[in-house]
């Protein structure tokens, strides 16, 4: 199987929505990510258990590496006015064992800290349509 980079990007471009800023993951995002992935409101629907520090660290490095290896990936979602960590969203090739398989199509995903739930932020971020080539399109 041939794997082809979709873009020449090596880091996530910054994208702003009305209330959020999407930016590349950084190593200092580890603590807020760990807190989010240990919150039952988050993990009960995704993993069924809290993430360990090691799993969260691997997730962070995987998000950073997606951009370098594939030219697309996940962004950190920050509150635009305060810079507060709100979660993450984007596209990934996790090579999941699924039926039917996704093939080479990237999957979209997002996770928000529980205090950000119910405010329409996931919809706002995903409607910004951060494309695989890193450009935001207007809805």
Q: What can you see in these coordinates?
A:
The protein has about 140 residues and is α+β, with helices and mostly antiparallel strands. It has a domain at about 25-100 and about 115-125: Gcn5-related N-acetyltransferase (GNAT) (Aminopeptidase). The protein is built from 4 helices and 5 strands. A 5-stranded antiparallel sheet has the order 1-2-3-4-5, with helices on both faces. The protein is globular and about 40 Å long.
Which key terms come to mind for this protein?
single chain; 139 residues; alpha+beta; Aminopeptidase; 29% helix; globular; disordered C terminus
Write the layout of secondary structure elements.
Blueprint: E1 15-16, E2 20-23, H1 30-37, H2 40-46, H3 53-70, E3 74-79, E4 85-92, E5 107-112, H4 121-127
Antiparallel strand pairs: 1-2, 2-3, 3-4, 4-5
- Alpha plus pi helix count: 4
Protein structure class: alpha+beta
Strands of the biggest beta sheet: in what spatial order? 1-2-3-4-5
Mean pLDDT: 86
Spans of at least 5 consecutive residues whose pLDDT stays below 50 are 132-139
- Rg: 15 Å
- CATH class category of the domain at 26-101 and 116-127: Alpha Beta
Got a strand count? 5
What is the CATH H-level superfamily of the domain at 26-101 and 116-127? Gcn5-related N-acetyltransferase (GNAT)
Note the beta-strand portion: 15-25%
- Main beta sheet: 5 strands, antiparallel
Distance between the termini: 35 Å
> The CATH topology of the domain at 26-101 and 116-127, please?
Aminopeptidase
Overall morphology: globular
